[in-house]
Structures are given as structure tokens and as C-alpha cells.
């Protein structure tokens, strides 16, 4: 059973990917300092898969501690999620984001380049496309000026990977530029659990309907979109987790066409904020209390994916639609875990 190191493995996407890795026959080893997650998710993962995954509570930026993990275990692959991810917070505290998001990748690569064979899946983001002039965006779409420091860190990280893979042929990496993950595992045991006030649409929406928060604010209703609100490509977190496993298998089987590849991971369909609200109300039989507010700094107007490359080269396609996503998100909220 191959050991796969998952940084940020107790986070939202990381926890779902740990489950998917186990189900695919891998042995996930988790690293997470729980700055944006909770150690309780280790127990929840175990409830789904049976065994409790091996877990290290450490910061990926801690080179000495991270190196000890590599020395202790034979690591056949790494999936790197560990990063700060709030667009709004990155605008108010950019140094925090540049320091953590860049240092964590640099530290990881410094250690991985010493390995005989290094396989890395990097958690990238559609945010690096900025306000792209064409929709849907392809992997070849020119990257526009970053709308936030968070997005800029993803651009810089990809540049670091491009240069490093060029200079280190034994390093094989895939960047998955994924779009907006929402939803939760069908068990209702794991889902998105932001610390503090959620900055993303769906967790704030579910907490608002549950009475934990006040009315939902829709940031901007005068954009150049059909209903005036921002458009995103929402993808079920379970589909996204499966994409990581498929990309990892590609690297392990040496099927990659070059030692650094890029893939968009989305549904290929854009949905507006108001469309999400209406669909949530429809599938869950509840009413969303929302107000229309001013635009929020750092938000891109519209972006959705051209998924042709992921569909044809990776052999990956989404299985779940927006209704499935919003239904599972509400079930997760109702679980009260």
C-alpha cells in the first residue's frame, strides 16, 4: 500500500481526499497544524473509512519536522493542500498569505528534490485567471492581473513549480486548477467547517438559514452578468477529491506527458450567486434571507472552466450537479457536527 502524504489533510478538501485515497487503496498520512481545521476531523474520517490515518500535527513550513516525516516513512506521493485561502483576509493581511503559501511550497520542494522519485499534486485555483477575457477558461488562457494576494500566491506557486520541474527532472508534478468546491460527503460526517465567520458563499448561506448568522449579503448586484451577481463554477468536493486521486495515479504510473502538467477541475458550467440561492431554496425547501450589498474587493466577476483536457487526458468527469452539492451542504449543516 503506497504512502501518500497529504498536507492540510484535515481541512475541507483535504479530508474528503483522504477518504478518497483510502477507498482507492492508498495509505494517506496527514500533516495539518489545524490553523484552519480541527483535529476532530481525524475521528470523523476514521468513522467513514474504519482505520484512523496516521497524523502529524506540524507546520509544513517547519523544515526540520517535515524532513523527519519523510525520513520515517517511504513517501510515494504528496498532495499539497496546506495554505491560507480567504480572498478577503489576503487583501487585509497580504504578508500572512505570501509568507505561508509560498514558504510551505518552497519547504516541501526543498525536501522532495532530495528524494529518488518525487510525485506532487499541487492545490491550485481558478482565481489565478483573474478577470479573464474569455469564458470558459482553458489551461492556455492568459492569466490576468491577480485580483487578490491569495490569487497571486497561486500564480507564483505555479511559477515556482514550472521552474523547479524544469531544473529537477526527477520531480513530477500536476497542478489542479480547481474552481469553487462546495457540498459535503454523503455520510454527513465531514464537510466545510470554517473557523469564525465564513468568507465563502455556501457555508455562510447554510449557517444563515440555520440561524447561526444573520442575513446573507450578496456582494454586488450590478456586475455584467445576466442577473448582476458574480458567476462561479461550483464543483462538488467529492468530485474534486476524486480528481486528486486520478491525477496521483497518473503520476505514479508515469503516464504524464511532461514532468509538470496543468488541469482545470470544474463542471464546465457557471452559476450565479442568485442562482445558487434559488436552487438551495428549491432542493431543501427552505427560505434564504439575503440582502444585496456593495461589491467586495478581490472578487472576480465571472469564471468557469473548460474541462476538456481533464475529461480527455485525465479521464475524469464530474458526477454530481449543483442540486446534489447544495442538498449535501444543507445535510451537513443539519448534522450539527
Brief description of this entry?
This protein has 337 residues and is of the alpha/beta class. The protein has helices at 12-23, 40-49, 63-72, 87-92, 94-112, 149-167, 201-209, 237-252, 273-284, 308-314, 322-335, and strands spanning 3-7, 27-31, 54-56, 75-80, 118-125, 171-178, 180-182, 216-219, 231-232, 234-236, 260-265, 271-272, 290-293.
Structural account:
- With 337 residues, the protein is α/β, with parallel strands linked by helices.
- The protein has a domain at 3-185 and 234-266 and 305-318: Rossmann fold, CATH 3.40.50.720.
- Helix content is 40%, strand content 18%.
- It is built from 11 helices and 13 strands.
- The chain has helices spanning 12-23, 40-49, 63-72, 87-92, 94-112, 149-167, 201-209, 237-252, 273-284, 308-314, 322-335; strands spanning 3-7, 27-31, 54-56, 75-80, 118-125, 171-178, 180-182, 216-219, 231-232, 234-236, 260-265, 271-272, 290-293.
- The strands form 4 sheets. The protein has a 7-stranded parallel beta sheet with strand order 3-2-1-4-5-6-11, with helices on both faces. A two-stranded parallel ribbon has the order 7-10.
- Strand 5, helix 6 and strand 6 form a beta-alpha-beta unit.
- Helix 1 crosses helix 8 (237-252), helix 5 runs parallel beside helix 6 (149-167) and helix 7 packs across helix 11 (322-335).
- The longest helix is centred in the first third of the chain and has 19 residues, at 94-112.
- The radius of gyration is 19 Å and the shape is globular.
- The mean pLDDT is 95.
Amino acid at each position: 500500500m503506497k504512502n501518500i502524504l497529504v498536507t492540510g489533510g484535515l481541512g475541507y478538501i483535504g479530508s474528503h481526499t483522504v477518504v478518497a485515497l483510502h477507498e482507492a487503496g492508498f495509505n494517506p498520512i496527514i500533516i495539518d497544524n489545524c490553523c484552519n481545521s480541527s483535529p476532530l476531523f481525524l475521528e470523523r474520517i476514521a468513522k467513514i473509512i474504519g482505520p484512523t490515518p496516521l497524523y502529524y500535527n506540524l507546520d509544513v513550513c517547519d523544515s526540520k519536522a517535515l524532513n523527519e516525516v519523510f525520513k520515517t516513512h517511504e513517501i510515494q506521493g504528496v498532495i499539497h493542500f496546506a495554505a491560507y485561502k480567504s480572498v478577503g483576509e489576503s487583501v487585509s493581511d497580504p504578508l500572512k498569505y505570501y509568507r505561508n503559501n509560498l514558504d510551505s511550497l518552497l519547504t516541501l520542494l526543498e525536501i522532495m528534490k532530495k528524494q529518488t522519485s518525487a510525485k506532487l499534486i499541487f492545490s491550485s485555483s481558478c482565481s489565478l485567471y483573474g478577470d479573464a477575457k474569455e469564458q470558459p477558461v482553458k489551461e492556455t488562457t492568459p492569466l490576468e492581473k491577480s485580483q487578490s494576494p491569495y490569487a497571486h500566491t497561486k500564480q507564483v506557486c505555479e511559477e515556482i513549480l514550472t521552474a523547479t520541474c524544469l531544473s529537477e527532472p526527477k520531480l513530477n508534478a500536476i497542478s489542479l486548477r480547481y474552481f469553487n468546491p462546495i457540498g459535503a460527503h454523503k455520510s454527513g460526517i465531514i464537510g466545510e467547517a470554517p473557523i469564525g465567520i465564513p468568507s465563502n458563499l455556501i457555508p455562510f448561506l447554510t449557517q444563515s438559514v440555520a440561524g447561526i448568522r444573520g442575513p446573507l449579503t450578496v456582494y454586488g448586484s450590478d456586475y455584467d452578468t445576466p442577473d448582476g451577481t458574480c458567476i462561479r463554477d461550483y464543483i462538488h468536493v467529492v468530485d474534486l477529491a476524486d480528481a486528486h486521486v486520478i491525477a496521483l495515479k497518473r503520476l505514479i504510473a508515469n503516464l504524464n506527458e511532461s514532468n509538470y502538467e496543468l488541469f482545470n477541475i470544474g463542471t464546465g458550467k457557471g452559476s450565479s450567486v442568485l442562482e445558487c440561492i434559488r436552487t438551495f431554496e428549491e432542493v431543501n425547501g427552505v427560505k434564504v434571507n439575503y440582502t444585496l450589498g456593495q461589491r467586495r474587493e478581490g472578487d472576480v466577476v465571472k469564471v468557469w472552466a473548460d474541462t476538456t483536457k481533464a475529461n480527455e487526458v485525465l479521464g475524469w468527469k464530474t458526477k454530481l450537479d449543483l442540486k446534489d452539492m447544495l442538498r449535501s451542504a444543507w445535510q451537513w449543516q443539519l448534522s450539527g457536527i
